[in-house]
Records
---
Amino acid sequence: MLSEKGCRERRAALEKKIAGRADWIVLTSPHHVLYFSNLWVEPNSLAHHSLAVLAWRGGESALFVDSFLSREARTAFADQVVVVPCYGDVRPVPDRRKAVMERAAAWLSAKRPGTVAAETAYLPAALAADLRGTGAAVLDVLPLIEEMRCVKYPDELDLMRSLVRDASSSLDAVREQVHAGLSEWAVYGLLHREFVTRRCMPLSLIADIVTDLRVSGLPRDRRLEKGDLVIIDFSPYSGGYRADISATLRVDTPPGGRQVEYMEALFQARARAEALLRPGVPGREVYGAMAGCFAQRGLGRFFTGHAGHGLGLLQPERPYFLPHSDEPLAAGQVVTLEPGLYDGRVGHMRIEDVYIIGPDGAERISRHRPGF
């Protein structure tokens, strides 16, 4: 979970960025309510369709939720938590999102704000209308928040280290259980079991389990065969943040032919790109180092994807390692490197690791076995 210190520091930082331009900050995006208050809505729960409204100014903050979120709100960091009854009360509330909006709007109206800072892309139309009905103007702060999210705070880095650690050990455990006859969905199930056992909390799992010369995609009913190359691209979402790691393995038999050469090329390309993971280097140079390595080995035409991306509340996030990405790296960013070669005659292969950008270089925080 995120820390109270981190949440309050992020709220203070956003206030500083808009100093003098707004009286109150009001957020409704679930990602950003989490980012600034530690309210995490488990995506597989009944609360998934709830609305939370976070409002603050200076040392005063309030979080508005419906009763489906009352348990999660106990671990959120806000001076006041307002729970709007919507279930289990004597009267049903058919539209619980509207009920939360009305309570938040009434509370804010009493504060008489001249301007409210909000993410206009996420602000519900009804709440925006209620705010404007009080005479308040709305200032869009979404670009400022997205800029803040590029560089992680210490509590975010702690959470992501533990998340990637558990993802790495889960993937290694699953490697030892893969054999011919298992379906792609069975491998997906093994990943879920191994990760939940380690994490001891709910999981929303995105995983490409790719065989039969596919590059990416959800698992299928296809059963693994001896000699198959399997790409496992594992991106668990837990506690509101994502990991993203990949490995390629061959089922029940050692790699053959040019497969070993291609895997060596993946590791060499990763090393070339790793050397550029430091502040000030634009994303296109990281991509160029990886692409150049493959080109030198005569494999450039088989490198058809990106070289990696940022990680955090979402996946992918800034920065991006693409041919035309000019954004420079910065200390505190969390990124992946994702070299892949997709040759139908030899097989499709991909590896992926996670890094934290430091002042002088990068630390690899994934510890799984990505290759054969």
---
Amino acid sequence: MDEDNVWVVIVSYNSGEHLRSLCASLQKQTISHNVVIVDNASTDKSLDFLKKSNLHCTIITNEANRGFAVGANQGASFANGKDATHIIFINPDAVLTPDCMEHLVRSLDDGAVGAVSPVIYKDFAKEELWFKGGEMDFWRHRVTHSEDEVRTRFLSGCILALRSDVFEKVGGFDEQFYLYYEDADLSLRLRKNGYKLMVEPDAEAFHAEQSEDASVAKTYFLTLSGLLFFDKHTHRGACLWFVFFSRLRYIFSTLKKAWLHARGATVTQKETQNSVVHAFETFYEGQGHHNFIPHRKLR
């Protein structure tokens, strides 16, 4: 694979120790590669660590948190400017086994495969799966992880490898998705362009899921990006169902918000439900993502 020019793209925001662990695993990979890190205005001094580490990487610094899709496209554009043949997007809270990237790149030797993800575990003991495939439910507006890598309908942006020409052909990540669902959207566009999606069973990784400690912001962006995704991809014949079901969810969410406030729920419960209602209101008003500023750190 000497002719391959593999680039790793990492989009980081206040990733701290997670980024340190990822970098350590990248240095143990069995294939040569380059690294570009797009930092979305971190304030936790994670950039200081990178500058002091012995990881050879390019750092692109944004003045504001522009979201994952924008940052990932920035990194991919830089890599393509360096004649990248393969691009592997990796979340900063992931850790790869030493031969993970090699297996991913080899999987892409099959021209019919548009993108590939590894099997991802929650723990180093491999006792609990985090991702081995994905399902899409257009009736209930849900995208969920599954254990069926053979029939996966989407791949995880946590670790996602593509040939650079394929990524450019389908237009990269859709930047209307500030956080979440950008991987499902890209996967669907790959499938519509005739490419297969693959989960490589011999490639393994681990995911600490850094966003778990930012539940209010996570809930907001999951809700809003989900609405954007299903609005974008729902078949014309099912548009009335999308309108009805999304309005029904909005009414239920508003009633639940009032109920939580009336019964004296915890601050976290009220803030989380407020974020759900605000996501629906933002979607219906067509204002986009960036008018929501969470009170807690957005990871």
---
Amino acid sequence: MSVLSSIEIEKVKIILKEISNPISIKVLKDSSPFSEKLIDYMKSISDLNENINIEISVTGAEPSISVTPNLRYHALPDETELEPFLKTLVRISKQNSELPDDIKERIKEIQHAELMVFIMPVCPHCAKIVERLNQFAIENSMIGVQVFDVAVFPEMVNEFEIMSAPTVVINGKIKLVNPSEDELIEFIESDKESEYFIRLLKDGQIDELRAYLEKNPEETASLVDLLRKSELSVRLGAIISILKMTEKKPELLGDIKNRLKGLLREDNSNIVQDAAFVLGKIGDEVDIGELEKLFVNENKDVREAAQEAIDEITSRNEE
């Protein structure tokens, strides 16, 4: 008996008429009721089109629908997710992502990316994001896409601290909530944490940044480069985050102090003052020499910032 409604059955029949070549879909099964739901659902779809073959595989992996080796659903593609799922099957059969040419060229150039998208069945924006990510995976086999239902995999929700849907996690690190297409491609292409940090700080998500750094403390040093940015919220957020992280993890100090000393040689007085301020907060006596070099700076504010930093280091060492 089909688990699809009469309306869904008609939708499946109409959309899957466009399938041009047979496709085989693997359902990974375990002992959970959820895996049985996946099997029943996919059988109901395959019963409506002879070009879809369903293979049941018992493995140690989490229950999922393996549409292709690089595209997997840990979610039931029903309700608003059904149509984009069916369109994905058609595109796979045609071996055509149907992406616009300009986007297609950019996606082809990506060397590797692992994307996880967290959805809810009745989420109004999730289906659009999932469909686009599926197209990326079809166009480039080096892009892995996994779709997770937040209600079925709470352990994944907790691990990545998912607060809303859709949320896309890029390479297990960068987390975007309901991103635009341009944002998605930009972050997949670059995988630059610094751009992600800027986005979080501009949006006032300093707690989100702190949570990221606690999981990836080795990337804290890249915050120093944000002191070059013109936006006050970005610079201030970077300073606060640097101070918090170096207090928790003193082993980060060496790299961060070296980068700050590099900023002391910048022409922009605001950058130099910020770098001196932070160095005064986290530095020690061996750093005073670099700060003393600023005494010949023509900018009075820079000279004062250097003296204040030295005074703070000195008073801290006297305690």
---
Amino acid sequence: MVLYRFLIGPLVCALVCAFVCAFVFASGCYQVKAAKLGQVETVPTCRSLAYGAKPLELDLYSSSTENLSNVNPSNKNQETALPGPDLIVCAHGGAWSRGDKADRLYGANLAKALLSPRHDYASINYRLAPRYKYPAQIEDYNRAIDFLLKLDRYRKSKLVLFGHSAGAQIVAAWILSPQAKARLSQSRIKAIVLIDPPALEISRMTKELKAAFGENARASKLSLLSKVQNLPQEDRAQLPPLTMVLSSDWRGKREQQSRTFFTLWHRNTNRKDTLIKVPENHVTVISALQAKKYELFEYD
């Protein structure tokens, strides 16, 4: 009996701790440890929402002290909605087959660095390859944008589209897709940020690309360079400002394709587009953003 009492207390504590940790991890909203031992710095307000069936979920972050209670969908007209903050919408990297909205690169640490009183931050999950082949990821990104713009808080907001690695390719592919035309004509896209975008032009289907795009995918059909090059001038004029960041790992053909995409994007326009080459590698470039080494957004 004494042994039973001795064991049951620690066991219950362990189960409670496991439950709490699992809940916090699943929600994607958690605390970031401060630099000094013993201090905990609370992440700005966060709320997790489903924008479809699993795994279609996103985490919303705000620097506001309010509890994001006004992010519920409604039937209000855009004209009657109150002005809200603009919204940064992040598509995570991971070769179209891995990654998560709440991991150390794209979750609370990045949100904390990018938030401002004028900008909220949303990190989204999308369906992953090889189970879900491309363009499922583009379809999910489009669904997330539609969902976000129907929320009370963002009915009058503009979006900043942010993508790293495969997420950058997803953002670029969406902005050049027919689904984006309505949002562009409504001037709802404020800017896009592409960090190390891969597969802008595919000359050879590698094992990784086959897993993402399918064995029989036509490389020419996937070419984003061709799409941006062949845009009619009236469509090109509606494109938002582009900030492209290339890491030290982005060399050779990948860097050449990225620079060509940037040049084609900027052609025949007077937009304020920016290309930045940084010394950080493909992963630590996000750490540099978390440390606020680079300012990618103009908070006007």
